[in-house]
Amino acid sequence: MTERTAKGVFWGGTLSSLALFLALTVDTHGQFAALTRADKLDDTVVAGKRVFERYNCNDCHTILGFGGYYAPDLTRAYTRLGADAIRRRLAQPEVAFRDSYRKMPNQHLSPAEIESLVAYLEWVAGIDNHDWPPQDSEARWKRSTERLLAAAALSPAAALVQQEGCLSCHALGDRGERQGPRLERVGARRSAAWIGEYLGDPQRLAPGSEMPGYQHLSAAQRQMIGEFIVALAARGGER
Asked: How confident is the model over 24-67, as pLDDT tens digits?
């Protein structure tokens, strides 16, 4: 290879790489507004971010890859828990985490601060960050969940979950609503026996809960639902 050819390869490769880098940079910046939902960034969301910083929530929680790892990642907290569950945890953490090995300090937030934090977490959860973090991946549960729900005709517990309208408040895989916590997450934290008892009398085990009681179901039926929900958590890691 001649010196002239070598220089041509060097400059050609360098300049083409630089041009590609600049093009990708411009394209990325052009997508920021859509990916971050900038149009939803209102005063309430901004106030929530300030509350988040004022109480040093990042000391324990990670959000968008920044913060501590003692407590759960909050990037998809709104997706995982829903607005009402977040409000309960912020207002009365000593009640919400009474039976959990995790504990959260009560910051005695005002109702306005709580609402702004909920708005902020909702905004963060809507950012398109390519399904990160993986533990809250929308696709993570899909395969096992679809198999379980498809077997409702053969599974009395799955049939009960559908019959009682559990998915009108709770998310399961890529189905359902997000007013309450995801069923997979409930199964990861609680035993089948606890879930069965909770369904019979939510107020006894979680005072202030907005969950309706299912006293019309037999103890055996409630236990079956508990076992079904725990099974979701056990199968959640399947790919």
From this structure: 999 888 887 777 778 888 999 999 999 999 999 999 999 998 99
Cβ-in-10-Å burial (0-12, 13-18, 19+) of 228 comes to: buried
SS3 assignment for the chain: CCHHHHHHHHHHHHHHHHHHHHHHHHHHHHHHHHHCCHHHCCHHHHHHHHHHHHCCHHHCCEECCEECCCCCCCCCHHHHHCHHHHHHHHHCHHHHCCCCCCCCCCCCCCHHHHHHHHHHHHHHHCCCCCCCCHHHCCCCCHHHHHHHHHCCCCCHHHHHHHHCCHHHCCEECCEECCCCCCHHHHHHHCCHHHHHHHHHCHHHHCCCCCCCCCCCCCHHHHHHHHHHHHHHHHHCCCC
Q: What is the architecture of the domain spanning 142-235?
A: Orthogonal Bundle (1.10)
CATH topology of domain 41-133: Cytochrome Bc1 Complex; Chain D, domain 2 (1.10.760)
Q: Is the distance from CB of 229 to CB of 155 less than 8 angstroms?
A: no
